[in-house]
């Protein structure tokens, strides 16, 4: 399917979903919706199968790419997230089936940034100049280095809880360079397009990490990814191996994104083998986060569930993954969350899981394999 035709088809799909749910939600498409509402009523009477003909007959109806992204992002934001996740997966399936998953915008590495957070200042360099960051006086090559990659709606110029919580925790340790990947506008768009950019983003990041590995011991590098950032981390791990000729020692996936990376689809996400050790914390199973095990070790707090204790929304549960991890980073808290290898949370509750407890998160042993379960409270501190 031609990209132009695909955009129109996608536009029709989103308008249809918006019309269907508008009576039950506060969906507002602002100026864009007002501008195109009359035209879209005419377009939605046509079928998706006539997309090519539509592209030829109705060029005046076609929104610009920026307007399309803005409209779909606003529309999805106004829907119940369970519905939004379903819409996104439908979009992804259509795109994959139409062979339209090549990024519409190929990331320009010079517009992506590494940001070193020292507690006193944010030191920023483009991915293309990563070596300048690794050689900056504020970067200590004698320390371990953690690289955090987050996903949709992440921007260093805005408040980002994952960055704030984890940087504060690692700063408290005092022995770690904490670097944040500012993916900015490349993932601050409709989730589907964000997902399609993961391989491109990972390639650029992996190349920069390979340069870092020339300056510090490889075992001192740890990549952490939340949500879509977990899959970018996996792509970075593959790129690192291609450039450095070896694997990253560890990638931690914090509730790796589920939409657009469902089993059976062609988009490749984080998986065991992307680093020497891949550990996963699943907190919003089957909705915004993946349900099935994908790492060497997969941790399921409170079971394979979509909602965590104390959470009334799936976004709260999606965020719980980095909240739990951050708690284990603080000095003296490394063993605050302990898990047992088990088949289910009910088996854990019944006491039939006899394996030795292991720490979750920061101090997780790199030689453990399998699925692990543990209980948490619904608020900080999360130790049950």
Automatic annotation (TrEMBL):
InterPro entries: AB_hydrolase_fold, Lipase, TAG_lipase. Residues 1-22 form the signal peptide. Keywords: Secreted, Signal. Gene3D superfamilies: alpha/beta hydrolase. GO terms for biological process: lipid catabolic process. It holds the Pfam family Lipase. Residues 105-354 form the Lipase domain. It is found in: Secreted. The keyword Signal applies. One of its GO terms (molecular function) is lipase activity. One of its GO terms (cellular component) is extracellular space. Belongs to the AB hydrolase superfamily. Lipase family. This is CSON009080 protein.
């Amino acid at each position: 399917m031609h990209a132009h035709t695909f955009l129109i088809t996608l536009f029709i799909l989103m308008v249809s979903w918006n019309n269907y749910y508008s009576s039950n939600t506060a969906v507002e498409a602002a100026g864009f919706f007002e501008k195109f509402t009359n035209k879209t009523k005419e377009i939605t009477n046509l079928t998706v199968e006539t997309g090519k003909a539509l592209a030829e007959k109705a060029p005046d109806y076609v929104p610009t790419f920026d307007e399309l992204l803005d409209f779909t992002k606003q529309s999805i934001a106004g829907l119940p997230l369970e519905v939004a996740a379903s819409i996104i997966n439908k979009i992804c399936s259509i795109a994959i089936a139409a062979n339209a998953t090549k990024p519409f915008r190929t990331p320009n590495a010079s517009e992506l940034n590494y940001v070193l957070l020292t507690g006193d200042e944010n030191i920023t360099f483009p991915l293309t100049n990563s070596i300048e960051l690794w050689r900056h006086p504020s970067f200590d090559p004698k320390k371990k280095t953690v690289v955090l990659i987050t996903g949709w709606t992440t921007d260093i110029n805005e408040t980002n809880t994952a960055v704030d919580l984890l940087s504060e925790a690692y700063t408290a340790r005092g022995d770690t360079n904490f670097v944040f990947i500012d993916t900015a506008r490349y993932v601050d768009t409709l989730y589907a397009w964000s997902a399609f950019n993961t391989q491109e983003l990972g390639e650029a990041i992996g190349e920069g990490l390979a340069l870092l590995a020339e300056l510090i011991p490889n075992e001192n590098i740890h990549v952490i990814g939340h949500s879509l950032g977990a899959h970018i981390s996996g792509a970075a791990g593959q790129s690192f191996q291609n450039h450095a000729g070896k694997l990253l020692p560890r990638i931690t996936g914090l509730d790796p994104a589920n939409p657009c990376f469902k089993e059976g689809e062609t988009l490749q996400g984080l998986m065991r083998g992307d680093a020497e050790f891949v550990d996963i914390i699943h907190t919003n199973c089957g909705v915004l986060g993946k349900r099935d095990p994908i790492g060497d070790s997969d941790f399921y707090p409170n079971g394979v569930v979509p909602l965590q204790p104390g959470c009334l929304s799936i976004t709260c549960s999606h965020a719980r993954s980095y909240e739990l991890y951050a708690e284990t980073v603080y000095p003296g808290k490394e063993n605050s969350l302990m898990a047992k290898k088990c088949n289910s949370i009910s088996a854990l509750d019944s006491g039939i899981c006899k394996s030795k407890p292991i720490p979750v998160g920061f101090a997780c042993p790199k030689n453990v394999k399998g699925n692990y379960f543990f209980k948490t409270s619904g608020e900080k501190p999360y130790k049950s």
